[in-house]
Structures are given as structure tokens and as C-alpha cells.
Design brief:
The structure is a single chain. The chain is an alpha/beta fold. The protein has a domain at 30-185: Ubiquitin-like (UB roll), CATH 3.10.20.90. It contains 6 helices and 8 strands; from the N terminus they run ββαββαβββαβααα. The strands form 2 sheets. It has a 6-stranded mixed sheet, sandwiched between helices. Strands 1-2 form a two-stranded antiparallel ribbon. Strand 1 and strand 2 form a beta hairpin. Helix 4 runs antiparallel to helix 5. The longest helix has 77 residues, at 231-307. The N and C termini lie far apart (130 Å). 14% of the residues are buried. Residues 246-287 have a biased composition (Basic and acidic residues).
Length: 331
């Protein structure tokens, strides 16, 4: 610590390297990736950022801190989906391979899983447990429900890293499809949440406004009843109050009409969105049915050709019989 004493204060001069992590940040170029974790079979998507040299234990810690109530479960398993299958990233037990010893307790990093591309999106699945058959069925059902691919990739559970792709996401079809799909799903959910919050705020403001106007009208009525002036003045005051009440009622009616118009526009918008979504799903189903029909028809034709050998033409047989008869008659 260097500095000079000025009165009773010490003026310090030092660098920004205040901890070990900052020192490493100055000397090493970190590769940061965006991690997306989707809970299966149903659940929310969690997004956070990690450096490729941080270990898997920190990945689990980040997920538990960002997942809310879902991160408080006793058992959490994260799977890395690829074309070759889903790879386990357990921090409790790891089988030994030719390159890794067993029971490494999550000391591997994202770079060991080949997730080291700067500013890329790497998708993970979160499940409660890992089972060779059940987990494979859950992952396959998720892909079939949300994606239409002509040649589905493998969904089997991989406990070894020998078949892990060289770069992730890279050109891996599973990672390339999952990243944008999960981001779009998160944006849609956030938009719905904002719309619900705005609707609640509007309802609360309208309720407060109605309560305030009701209190004002009640005060006017009490003032009218307590009026002790002469009959003429009372009649004038009553006419003014009635005019004020009529004016207020007309204003409230206009506001009510505006609110009804906004509700109608919102309802039409929601109906249009639902109709477009239904049309999109119908188009996807039609395309899927057409592809299935084309594949099925081609398979049936090939099967029929393979089973039925070339036979003689019936016309040729008739000609042969007729020639035989002519020959016999000529004889």
C-alpha cells in the first residue's frame, strides 16, 4: 500500500487488481458463453453467463441460484444434448474413461465439454434423475413435440465423452435448433408477463379513480343536505349540484366506453393471435402428414416392386396360344 498522509486521511494509489479473479482476468482472455437450461419434461428456461474455464460445480451453483423454486430440489442433473446423444454432467459420480478418472466430483469445465466459443449459446436439459431408458424417452418426446426434423438424432444417455462433438454449438443440429427456440420461448413468456402486469396496473388505477369519485360525490351530497341557506339559494345550489353530477356521470360514461373499446381491441388481438397460431399449427401438421404420406407411399412402391417379379405379358400369352392353334390347323 503506497500513499501520502494528508491530515488524518490516507490517499492511496493502487491498481484495480483487488482479488485473484481480477488478476486472472487481466492475464487470461476469457471465453464467455450464454448457458440456457430447460427443465424436462415441463418447466421454465433459465439463462445465465459463464466462462469456459469455470468448472461444472459452478454451473450447478449458477443454475440453483437463478432457477428459483426449481433450483431448491435435492436432486438436480444437467444433461448436454447433442446429435450423438445427451451427455451427463453429474457432479456426484462419473465413470472412468480412457481420458478421465472416475469420481472427479465436477472438476471438469465447460471447455472440457467443448463449449468454448465466445458469445455462443449452449443449451442444457435439467432432469430430476438420470435413467438410461426413462431419460431417453423424455428427451425424445420433447424433440418430437417441438421440432420437425427429417432425420432425428440420437437421444440415448452418454456417460462417456468419447463421442462428444469437437465444437459446441458449432454445427451440431441439436444445439443449433435448441438455442433460438429457447430464447424465443423466454421472450414470449416475458411479453405475456409484461402485458399481465400492465393490465393489473390499469385495473388498479381505475379502481382508485372510481373510489375517489365516489367519495367526492358523497361529500357533495352531504354538503347539499347540510345546506341551511334560503329556499332560492338552496334551489340554485341543488341545480348546480345536479349539473355537476350529470357532468361527472357523462365523463365516467365516456371513460367506461374507452375502457370497453380497449378491452374489445385487446380481445380481438388475442383472438387473432390464437387464430394465427392455430393456422400455423395446421400448416405444420399438414406438412408433417404430407411428408409421412410421401415416405409411406415410396416405401410401399419399393416393397411391391421387390416382392413381385417380372411376369409375361398376357397379350404375349394369347398370341402364343393363337399361333399354336394356327399351326395345328395348318398341319
Amino acid at each position: 500500500l503506497e500513499g501520502t498522509v494528508v491530515g488524518k486521511k490516507v490517499v492511496c494509489e493502487h491498481t484495480h487488481l483487488v482479488n485473484h479473479e481480477e488478476i486472472r482476468r487481466q492475464h487470461w482472455k476469457y471465453q464467455f458463453v450464454d448457458v440456457l437450461v430447460k427443465t424436462l419434461p415441463t418447466g421454465d428456461t433459465v439463462r445465465f453467463r459463464m466462462a469456459s474455464h469455470w468448472d461444472i460445480r459452478y454451473l450447478y451453483w449458477q443454475y440453483r441460484n437463478n432457477a428459483g423454486s426449481e433450483g431448491m430440489d435435492d436432486k438436480v442433473e444437467l444433461l448436454l444434448p447433442t446429435e450423438e446423444g445427451v451427455f451427463t454432467t453429474s457432479i456426484e459420480r462419473q465413470l472412468s474413461t480412457a481420458r478421465f478418472a472416475g469420481f472427479d466430483m465436477g472438476l471438469r469445465t465447460l471447455a472440457d465439454f467443448h463449449c468454448a466459443t465466445q458469445d455462443s449459446f449452449v443449451s442444457f436439459f435439467r432432469v430430476a434423475f438420470v435413467h438410461d431408458k426413462l431419460t431417453e424417452g423424455i428427451v425424445e418426446a420433447f424433440f418430437r413435440m417441438n421440432f420437425t426434423v427429417p432425420d432425428p438424432w440420437s437421444t440415448r444417455v452418454q456417460r462417456f465423452m468419447d463421442e462428444l462433438p469437437a465444437v459446441l454449438p458449432g454445427t451440431d443440429r441439436a444445439q443449433v435448433l435448441l438455442g433460438p427456440w429457447l430464447i424465443k420461448a423466454m421472450e414470449i413468456k416475458d411479453a405475456w408477463a409484461r402485458e399481465d402486469e400492465e393490465a393489473k396496473i390499469r385495473e388498479e388505477e381505475l379502481r382508485k379513480h372510481k373510489e375517489a369519485r365516489a367519495k367526492e360525490l358523497a361529500a357533495l351530497e352531504r354538503k347539499r343536505l347540510n345546506n341551511t341557506v334560503g329556499a332560492k339559494a338552496a334551489r340554485m345550489s341543488k341545480r348546480k349540484q345536479l349539473a355537476a353530477i350529470r357532468k361527472e356521470r357523462s365523463r365516467m360514461e365516456r371513460e367506461q366506453k374507452l375502457m370497453e373499446e380497449e378491452e374489445r381491441v385487446q380481445r380481438e388481438y388475442e383472438e387473432r393471435v390464437a387464430r394465427e397460431e392455430a393456422e400455423r399449427r395446421a400448416v405444420l401438421e399438414a406438412k408433417r402428414a404430407r411428408k409421412f404420406a410421401i415416405k409411406r407411399g415410396g416405401a410401399k412402391k419399393e416393397k411391391k416392386k421387390a416382392k413381385s417379379p417380372k411376369a409375361k405379358s398376357p397379350k404375349a400369352g394369347r398370341r402364343g396360344k393363337a399361333g399354336g392353334k394356327d399351326a395345328a390347323g395348318g398341319g
